[in-house]
Amino acid sequence: MHTQASGQQADAARTAPCPQCKEIKAKRYAAVRHGDKCTAAAMATAMGLHQRASHA
Q1: Does residue 9 form part of some domain?
Q2: pTM to 2 decimals?
């Protein structure tokens, strides 16, 4: 069941990524640009863990 508060939180998450999300994304994008598949994969995992811990 969704409440008004959860809807507002979801809207806020879409419009203002948290600093840690931005950092993880930047590291992954840089790794992809440089062909570093290991770091790119690690950052994808880090993002999943972060989203579950911080945005669930």
Answers
A1: no
A2: 0.69
Nearest C-alpha neighbor of 31 from the set 17, 20, 45: 45
d(CA 54, CA 21): 10
39 domain-assigned: yes
Angle at 26 between CA 6 and CA 39, to 5 degrees: 110
What range does the domain containing 40 cover? 17-54
Could you read off the pLDDT of 3-46 as tens digits, one per residue? 555 566 566 556 668 999 999 999 999 999 999 999 999 999 99
The answer to whether residue 50 sits within a structural domain is yes
* Calpha distance 49→42 (Å, rounded): 11
